[in-house]
Design a protein that fits this description.
- The chain has one domain.
- The chain is built from 20 helices and 2 strands.
- It is globular, with a radius of gyration of 25 Å.
- Helix 6 packs parallel to helix 20.
- With about 475 residues, it is mostly helical.
């Protein structure tokens, strides 16, 4: 016994001296770098151990890499609050690549057989098409492909691979949902702060840079953007969160949680209202009827239409509530032909139709929006704002690409419907109903805004579509009431 105690103490002592030596060397090196380089070196010495620890954790457990990817997607908008230009997009690329490497490192416990699935095949086909687009002879600056393919397909195929292969548990799914709703709740209150208390100095600087003031200050009214990239992205997230919380009101049996979701629905809906994002209304107008169709509850669907149609007609053909800016913005979403910005969009699309008539594969990925303005500002694709995710796809991948993309979305939704209708577990049904309805609503909204190509909406969609399409792996028989 004495011998074993001596050996244990000796091993602990050796580890102590190794850690002490490493800590001492690190402190000396950090002191030298700080004295030579100043503040950047100080920041580096603080971040280096955190990054190293994160890398080790992801290599040991790839699920945490997926979770970190989701958190970083919400943190992208916070870069406006720091003076240093942080390439969060590249960090996200690194996290996804490291997580993929971790899958192979932990290959023995991964579920590789799940790659033989229709959802993964659909995403692979779309990725393969975007890969071929690298050879598009019409592209004015081909290296731009590497920057813009990420929101198009690269992140989607990486996330699909990770979600399918990783042994995700029911608790992981619960954590994903709750994290998303928690971020949405915080975002709503941040927007309320902007609306009722004012903007921070960093937000004022952002608003006054570029065209941000033109798109976020309309008729003297602020379109709140919270800590997201812009008001459209924030409005889309609030619309989706409102829909999910509303569905939980109907699906939840326990009174406390039902009331809690009523409160969340009201908070998220007012968050959507202060964003001034008109097209986000269609997340609700499309998503909720789709939820009722999923339930195959045609009586409630008819009742909902009976209640909704008068409200829509009230917004379309009366001026009731027009003195309220938020209500007026909702009204203008239903009367687009009275909206100059919508008419301008139609005119832009007519110009694009002329340019793309003989380009079935588009002008090449990376030729429109900010990438086009950065790499090929002289090209026609960079000079006409798409103002829509599907128009952006049309410009860059042609009518062949946008049709293939829509078919992929329809295929994922179709597989999701089939899987959800087979579920038996009430909790899982509630979660997947919300995910699927939100996905359909966001897909419809994509006609008016490019939110499907922006953080964090695209990250939520990339993860949730694969969770929906494989939700049967967490299903279980409901516990009988006692």
């Amino acid at each position: 016994m004495a011998s074993s105690t001596f050996t244990l103490n000796n091993a602990s002592s050796s580890q102590f001296w190794i850690y002490s030596l490493f800590g001492g060397l690190y402190t000396l090196g950090a002191g030298y770098l700080i004295s030579a380089m100043g503040a950047p070196a100080a920041l580096l010495t603080i971040l280096a151990p955190i990054v190293l620890l994160t890398v080790v954790i992801i290599l040991r457990e790839p699920r945490l890499g997926l979770y970190l990817y989701l958190q970083l997607s919400f943190l992208v908008g916070f870069t406006r609050f720091v003076q240093i230009d942080i390439p969060v997009g590249l960090v996200i690329d690194g996290v996804l690549s490291l997580t993929l490497f971790s899958l192979f490192l932990n290959g023995q416990r991964m579920e590789w057989h799940r790659l033989k699935s229709i959802p993964f095949a659909l995403v692979v086909i779309w990725f393969a098409y975007t890969l071929i687009e690298l050879l598009n002879p019409e592209a004015p600056y081909r290296p731009a492909w590497f920057f813009h393919v990420r929101p198009f397909s690269l992140h989607w195929i990486q996330v699909a691979f990770i979600v399918l292969v990783t042994p995700i548990t029911r608790q992981d799914v619960r954590l994903f949902v709750n994290t998303w709703l928690a971020w949405s709740f915080a975002a709503a209150f941040w927007a309320f702060k902007q609306q009722y208390l004012g903007l921070s100095p960093a937000e004022v600087v952002w608003l006054n840079s570029g065209f941000n003031a033109r798109t976020h200050m309309l008729f003297g009214q602020l379109r709140c953007f919270s800590f997201y990239s812009d008001a459209a992205q924030f409005g889309a997230e609030m619309g989706g969160a409102t829909l999910v919380a509303l569905i939980r009101v109907f699906e939840e049996k326990r009174l406390f949680y039902k009331l809690l979701n009523v409160v969340l629905t009201l908070v998220f809906f007012w968050g959507y209202a202060v964003s001034g994002t008109r097209s986000a209304l269609f997340v609700l107008l499309a998503g909720f009827p789709f939820y009722l169709l999923l339930k195959r509850d045609f009586l409630k669907l008819i009742i909902g239409l009976i209640l909704a149609i008068p409200l829509v007609l009230l917004l379309m053909y009366t001026s009731i509530g027009s003195s309220n800016y938020q209500i007026q913005r909702m009204r203008s979403a239903l009367t687009p032909m009275n909206d100059p910005s919508f008419i301008l969009r139609m005119q832009n699309q007519e110009k694009l139709r002329t340019y793309l008539k003989d380009l079935p594969f588009g002008a090449g990925i990376g030729t429109s929006t900010d990438m086009g303005a950065r790499f090929s500002p002289w090209h026609w694709a960079a000079q006409i704002p798409p103002d829509s995710w599907y128009v952006e796809l049309w410009i860059e991948t042609g009518r062949v690409g946008v049709q293939l993309y829509i078919l992929m979305l329809m295929g994922l939704a179709g597989v999701g419907i089939y899987r959800v209708w087979q579920l038996k577990d009430p909790w899982l049904i509630k979660v997947m109903f919300g995910f699927l309805a939100e996905f359909v609503g966001i897909a419809i909204m994509g006609y008016s805004n490019p939110v499907l190509g922006q953080f964090p909406t695209n990250s939520v969609v990339f993860i949730s579509t694969i969770l929906i399409a494989t939700c049967n792996r967490w299903d279980k028989e409901p516990t009988p009431a006692t």
